[in-house]
Design goal:
This protein is of the alpha/beta class. It has helices spanning 11-28, 33-39, 44-51, 59-68, 74-87, 102-113, 132-140, 148-162, 179-183, 189-202, 255-271, 275-286; strands at 116-121, 172-178, 208-213, 227-231, 240-244, 249-252. It has 2 domains: 11-87, 434 Repressor (Amino-terminal Domain), CATH 1.10.260; 92-286, Endonuclease, Chain A (2-Layer Sandwich). The chain contains 12 helices and 6 strands.
Length: 289
């Protein structure tokens, strides 16, 4: 039942993988979280957070839990302890801790390890598809107002995230963008022209699909607002739905919740302009139509 993360998997994903495997081992032995916590001098809630991958792991704690769960095979123990070491490695985004909220660090880690990212946006162009001028204009409207230095740091973080689509084993990005985001003059006409041209350019990448939900369609399946769905190459990991709020975020991984958002995304893809029709619309917008 041991599954190691595939190459390129982020530390966040390795942490979730390790936690899920510890949970299955515990449950298969009929051991409560309270008893597991007693074994490592921790609370029941600490075991719960470990099993959800929401805290870092100590190799000693995992070794003690494996002994409690009856995992005596040397190869299996080493594979799991190896995951501990990998899970505790810092990702590149930790160098942006000064401008990266804790609740968003989780998303960046998941994004880095995803095989597929599906996203629906209403008000803004998705962050992974923003050109530099557009992103700068978005950050310039942040309230409360941020300093020039912080703006540049946030911009650097966004541009670094975008390398994900062009370097190494890039994920497949499928974005549905409401036409409102294309018509909203963020930064003024010059910035919007640069942004629309950037969307046309990036849509030529084999791993990027862009569709627009046009005004003329009227009411549609995305009434609940913006969301993203992340899928991972590891079979043990469920899809995760990401819902961003002003000062926090929700991460949904229960099957019923995820299935509901998957159905909405699939409906949006069916009802939106096709990728080729989307390119035609973007070209017309550039021409001033």
């Amino acid at each position: 039942m041991t599954t190691t993360a595939q190459p390129g998997g982020g530390s966040m994903v390795r942490r979730i993988l390790l936690g899920s495997q510890l949970r299955r081992l515990r449950e298969s032995r009929g051991i409560t979280r309270e008893d597991a916590g007693y074994q490592i001098r921790a609370s029941e809630s600490k075991i719960s957070r470990m099993e959800l991958g929401r805290v870092s792991f100590k190799e000693r704690d995992v070794a003690d839990l494996l002994s409690l769960y009856g995992v005596d095979d040397g190869g299996e123990r080493e594979a799991l302890l190896g995951l501990v070491r990998e899970a505790n490695k810092s990702g590149w985004w930790h160098s942006f801790n000064d401008v990266l909220p804790g609740w968003f660090q989780t998303y960046v880690g998941l994004e880095e390890a995803a095989a597929q990212i599906r996203t629906y946006e209403v008000q803004f162009i998705p962050g992974l598809l923003q050109c530099e001028e557009y992103a700068r204009a978005v950050f310039g409207q942040t309230r409360p107002v941020i300093s020039d230095a912080e703006l540049e740091r946030r911009l650097s973080l966004r541009l670094r995230r975008q390398k994900l689509l062009a370097e190494g084993p890039s994920p497949r990005l499928w974005a549905v963008i409401d036409e409102a985001a294309l018509r909203r003059p963020v930064g003024g006409p010059k910035v919007m022209r640069a942004q629309v041209q950037y969307l046309l350019d990036v849509s030529e990448q084999a791993n990027v699909v862009i569709q627009v939900m046009p005004f003329r369609f009227g009411a549609h399946a995305g009434e609940s607002g913006a969301f993203s769905i992340l899928r991972f190459p590891e079979q043990d990991l469920a899809d995760v739905v990401y819902l961003e709020q002003l000062t926090s975020a929700l991460y949904l991984d229960k099957r019923d919740d995820v299935d509901a958002y998957v159905q909405v995304m699939e409906r949006l893809c069916v009802d939106s302009l096709t990728p080729e029709q989307t390119k035609d619309l973007l070209t017309r917008i550039l021409a001033g139509n």
